[in-house]
Amino acid sequence: MFDTIVIGAGYAGLVLAERLASQQNEQVLVIEQRRHIGGNAYDRFDTNGVLIHEYGPHIFHTRSKEVWDYLSLFTNWHYYEHKVLAKVDGKEVPIPFNLNTIEEVFTPALAHRMQQKLVDLLGYNVKVPILKLKEQDDEDLKFLANYVYEKVFLNYTLKQWGIGPEELDPTVTARVPVYISRDDRYFQDEYQGLPKFGYTEMFKAMSDHPNIHMLMNTRYQDIMDIGEEGNRLFGQFFEGKIIYTGMIDELFGFCFGELPYRSLRFEYDTYDTEYKQSVGQLNSPNSYDFTRITEFKHLTGQQHPKTTLAREYPQAYRSGENTAYYPIIAEENQKRYKQYKKRAATLHNVHLVGRLAEYKYYNMDAVVATALKLYAKLQHK
Amino acid sequence: MFDTIVIGAGYAGLVLAERLASQQNEQVLVIEQRRHIGGNAYDRFDTNGVLIHEYGPHIFHTRSKEVWDYLSLFTNWHYYEHKVLAKVDGKEVPIPFNLNTIEEVFTPALAHRMQQKLVDLLGYNVKVPILKLKEQDDEDLKFLANYVYEKVFLNYTLKQWGIGPEELDPTVTARVPVYISRDDRYFQDEYQGLPKFGYTEMFKAMSDHPNIHMLMNTRYQDIMDIGEEGNRLFGQFFEGKIIYTGMIDELFGFCFGELPYRSLRFEYDTYDTEYKQSVGQLNSPNSYDFTRITEFKHLTGQQHPKTTLAREYPQAYRSGENTAYYPIIAEENQKRYKQYKKRAATLHNVHLVGRLAEYKYYNMDAVVATALKLYAKLQHK
């Protein structure tokens, strides 16, 4: 009946389902525990008719022409380049902290000196992780590094992750650099934008194939068994492929303990005005418990007389109570993940892919690339 | 695994699924061939953010407190009473044709006489089917009847049904009466309104139960066998109930021939203005090929700077090509339906309910009432 079962209807699952159905003419059953497709990239109109991102702001950006072209099969784009301001000392300044930010924050003479030294010592158009900058010998740069560390980095990181920066993997903390450039954009990738009519419409187009069957509001455990002795669907042996995009620890009943995630909570406000902020994202590194405020209309390009904003409160992830957002990339957790990964290798015909299944802090483009790679690999088997 | 399989996620199917899941703690699998729930009552935001009814205007109205209270479990209401104008002799006049319409169309003396005679001969606050009115002896009323017949009824009916009024069942043609009243509302039911945030949100709330599993984009035939020898799901005997809300002729491979339906095609226009019409529905009985223009914001109550309207073109239903809307209630078709109905009685544990399964021109409230009745019946078994 089905050639492939895909567990999870987020990016990873839908890319595989789409490729296998449309290119290999496979019959695919997609099982999704939520009531909607698209995973955490799901967007929807709120009750005011404003398009919002239910699980926080998603800005697509990639350097991969392959990924961009692939998604462009299913959507046109709203060409948007993300800009972020952070409230520092009562002023809204560009983030990542760059040469412009330096001018806005410091006196002209000091700013000029810092800019000069940054360019001379580290080069122009370079992103320097803040923890790297702190290691510089120069007094001005040390001062700058400490300033950025204290005003932009430390408390934001503490709020965001619930642990100090030293406990996090450098790949995570490197996401907050000082950028030696006048480029105020948050990303510098060649391809940036949002699906013209929203992510959900793009995902609908991806899954709109007669070979793709969507079983929603269903936990795979309720109808399947996946294990070393083989896999079953509705009690019968299932010989086909399984693409698993859920949590890897859940697949094995958390036998080695839970892999921790960071979660988020959102508070929404709608205003009877066209725009409330000058940019799509306003960071609050030091004040309040939320990390940032997103004004979705800047991102989506929607024309509407009202505007909806979301304040974002990081919080601990608790299984069954809230939503898993970010794997917490830290040494101990990686060790635990590897135990699960080893066990996953003993399964028959089960392929793990995606943020939850690989316990990786994937960006959207990266998970598409990984899914396409897995698809290619499956063809060579 | 599943106690009940519901085929079709429209009103009939979702009422049964909801009751069985929430009241009987049954595990329910709902199979739906479309990508969305709600059947033809499905609504969605268009690309301008205007809430539209994808399958034509749906205005909920009922005299049944039970039905109203039941749906109110899943939605609040936008209290809306439908008003319709028809373009007659270049003027927009209230429909159903009533005492006010008479004043707008005829000279004062003639109008006054007609009003008097209608009230005297037929009573106040009475709806008289136009075909009934034509049988009146009085000259003025005959004139009125012929006028309404020609200007409002005949061509509209021909467009709507593709056949003449004499071929249609009186219950269908009675939907266009002359109303002896000054009440300009299209419906007089005690309870009228639209789900506050749309039909789709109401259906989502109905199906939002952990016992309800939705298999979308899947034809039941692809995974089930339903027949006199028993029913199978994924090749295994299925002992539970089946609620079938699809077309009854399809269930038996059209063995007695196809039951005909009328279909519709919509053309949408969005304007950069708040409102385009003074009411939600403007009928075009004699001009153009469309029957009516719906301006959704009047119905939904949405506040938006733009407005979307749909022109409605009736057309023949062709299986696999367009959507079935209205069963064509005519003698020959009823005979054919009865053949199918007889055959359906031989099935095991299969219950047919809804517009398509019963080949009935149900209003929304009537199908809810019927589904609730079936639910009650199932409890007494």
Question: How do the helices and strands line up, and which of them pair or pack?
Answer:
The structure is a homodimer of 381-residue chains.
Chain A: E1 4-7, H1 11-24, E2 28-31, E3 43-45, E4 51-53, E5 60-62, H2 65-72, E6 77-78, E7 84-88, E8 91-95, E9 97-98, H3 99-105, H4 108-122, E10 126-129, H5 130-133, H6 139-161, H7 170-173, E11 177-180, E12 191-195, H8 199-207, E13 212-216, E14 224-227, E15 230-233, E16 236-237, E17 241-244, H9 248-251, E18 261-271, E19 281-283, E20 292-295, H10 296-300, E21 307-316, E22 326-327, H11 331-344, E23 350-352, H12 355-358, H13 364-379
Parallel strand pairs in A: 1-2, 1-17, 2-13, 7-19, 9-11, 17-23
Antiparallel strand pairs in A: 3-4, 5-12, 6-12, 7-8, 10-11, 14-15, 15-16, 18-21, 18-22, 19-20, 20-21
